[in-house]
Amino acid sequence: MSNLAFREPSFIADAIRIARKDLLIEFRSRSGFLSAVVFALLSLAIFRFSWDPTAVRSTLLAPGILWVIFTFAGLLGLNRSFNVEQVDRAMDALLASPVSREAVFAGKALGNFVFVMAVQLLALPTLALFFGLPVGPEWWGVLAVALLAGAGFVAVGTLFAAVASNTRLAEMLLPMLALPFFVPVLIPAAQATSSLLAGRPISEVLPELKILGAFDIVFMAACALAFPFTLEE
Known about the structure:
By secondary structure, the chain is an all-alpha fold. It has helices at 11-29, 31-49, 58-83, 90-96, 101-130, 138-165, 170-197, 206-226. The protein has one domain (11-230). α2 packs parallel to α5 (101-130), α6 (138-165) packs parallel to α8 (206-226) and α7 (170-197) packs antiparallel against α8. The radius of gyration is 19 Å and the shape is globular.
């Protein structure tokens, strides 16, 4: 028999399969994604029509609005990622499979990352349109900030979504647990976005980018190690 037979699946392959499963479920129902998109667009519209252009410049106001909306729209997706496993106790079957719990975390986090970035990619052009923001190469820097912040956001959020999913008050408990840990992500992300939209060069936001990168590395590793203890057999 070939020694390639019955080869143990790799960590990355397992994570991709889990992320693909979650994204296919979301693609078929679209309930979580549509809820997050509607929330983001409605929030942007409300902020736009309550904004007085003579009182504050759009480049000062827009970054804060963007990251507030990103946070709460992202929480909708994080809740969804483990709610889908509650139906027919699918999580028990997942834990009984020969997939490591760290791979489960990585797959869930990857699916959540795709979800929140899809919402962000719709929110960014809408933000620019509603607030008359200049469109130029600085938006590549904003996108880089969004990617770095999104990675740290979903690492922490996926861990606490798993903790909250074992309770009856998951929708209330997740924001209470996760929001304090989002602060180290949201503050440098908002500062970097504000500087970039004001026309400052990318070199001036390197300290914020380094903070986001360090947060991603530390919390991805810490959350992956802590994740197995959040699940019950």
